[in-house]
Amino acid sequence: MAFNSISVHTNQLSRLGLNQKVLKDGSTVLVRIISDKGNGKYSASVAGARVSVSSNKNLKIGATFLANITSHDGKIYINPKENAGLVLNNIKLELLESSQLMNLLQNLGLPADSVSLSLFQMTKQLEMKMDQGLLNKLYKISLKFNGKEKSAAEILLLLAKKGLNADEHEILQLLTFLESSGNKDLGDKENFEKGKGLLNRMNRIKEGWLIFPFEIVETKSSIALGQGNIRVLPSHNQKPKILNLDCRYETKTYFFNLNYDEGKLKKIKFFISETKFEEIDDVVLSLKKRFIDIVPGIEIEWAEQEEIEGFASQGQSFYTFDGSI
Known about the structure:
The protein is α+β, with helices and mostly antiparallel strands. The protein is 29% helix and 30% strand. The protein contains 9 helices and 14 strands.
């Protein structure tokens, strides 16, 4: 991959959460080319933040490489190293342990608990800036939703991503609406329309997660056999990136987490309530047999409910590279 330096305008840095100390002259960063915007401009992930870059040579979408940093004339220049063709799995990345993540939360002024961790991981999932003030504000508000703190925190962060405002009562109505999967008979009828109204406002903004409640109805009797929610996180080209499905059917609850790469299904994680430990391997094998001819090479694995419920932010991992996250 022989090409000259790539430039980044420095006025993007504070807005996107890039630390200029990380991008000082001589530092090394990990770069991934995300999309081609035309006329020599690209979207790229630089040191973990999404920025617009310019290059006088064609760049391959998906290319990942190491680069040195130089800066002058109000721009930062990314200079690919001699072995810039290294792919991601050839670069030494170390997965942060849970104790290190908890230390990161404390550095952000957040308590080291599951609600904070969910906010932290979903911030990465939505490619948002790690805004200490915002995260602390949302954490404090989420504590007002007794028994629903994690779900409330996720909805609050999604509202922030979409640039929407909602009061605490509206958020509670939305949570109740989603728990009933939009079924008036299962939810609070008085607040049903208000919860639905907030969801419609959120779905009109295509950035971030989209949420679609559904019912499984017996055709002849029109009796609802099951209810659930489909949540879709589109990529920047509007192809699916993650699809999450929860469904309550008869006595069981089903959770499915589908991960895509450029719109192609690559991995499924799932959980089914009331499944005994000794039954898990057989259930996984049965699902693999259903998909093997439809999606060759797909990965299918069992996951714990906490990992894939809601917006599946618990699947987000954090790595260190040369000591930087």
